[in-house]
């Protein structure tokens, strides 16, 4: 039987991609959380940030069981980068200049390209 014909392998692959996406979203959470910890002097934001960090890294580790390291890490950081920039623009009123948005679009295309070229 070919690897692509095994439903368990396909499920593992899909689950790995889902875990990676959640890990990336949690990376956004801890990156944003760092802003609100004020140097880890505020207890609740600090605790939530650390929990988000640990959960993000744990899910990335689980996803790496079935995904290539370079692809998974690049996508994880890409999701975190894009999400953090979007949060900054929408919530913190950071600039949304055309060149900045173009750079974010390039990251999105890079993530999509990595996903499309990965066999896992």
UniProtKB/TrEMBL annotation:
Pfam families: Multi_Drug_Res (PF00893)
Record flagged with keyword Transmembrane helix: yes
Ranges that cross the membrane: 14-34, 46-67, 73-92, 99-117
Example of a GO MF term: transmembrane transporter activity
Domain of life: Bacteria
Keywords for the protein's UniProt record, in alphabetical order: Cell membrane, Membrane, Transmembrane, Transmembrane helix, Transport
Location of this chain's protein in the cell: Cell membrane
Coiled-coil region(s): none
Main localization category: membrane
Membrane topology per record: Multi-pass membrane protein
Name under which the protein is recorded: Guanidinium exporter
Lineage: Bacteria, Pseudomonadati, Pseudomonadota, Alphaproteobacteria, Rhodospirillales
């Amino acid at each position: 039987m070919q690897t692509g014909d095994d439903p368990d392998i396909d499920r593992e692959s899909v689950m790995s991609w889902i875990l990676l996406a959640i890990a990336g979203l949690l990376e956004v959470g801890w990156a944003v959380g760092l802003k609100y910890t004020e140097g880890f002097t505020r207890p609740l934001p600090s605790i939530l940030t650390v929990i988000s960090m640990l959960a993000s890294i744990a899910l990335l580790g689980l996803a790496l069981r079935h995904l290539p390291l370079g692809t998974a890490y690049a996508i994880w950081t890409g999701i975190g980068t894009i999400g953090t920039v979007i949060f900054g623009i929408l919530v913190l009123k950071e600039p949304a200049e055309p060149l900045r948005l173009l750079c974010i679009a390039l990251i999105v295309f890079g993530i999509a390209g990595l996903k499309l070229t990965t066999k896992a």
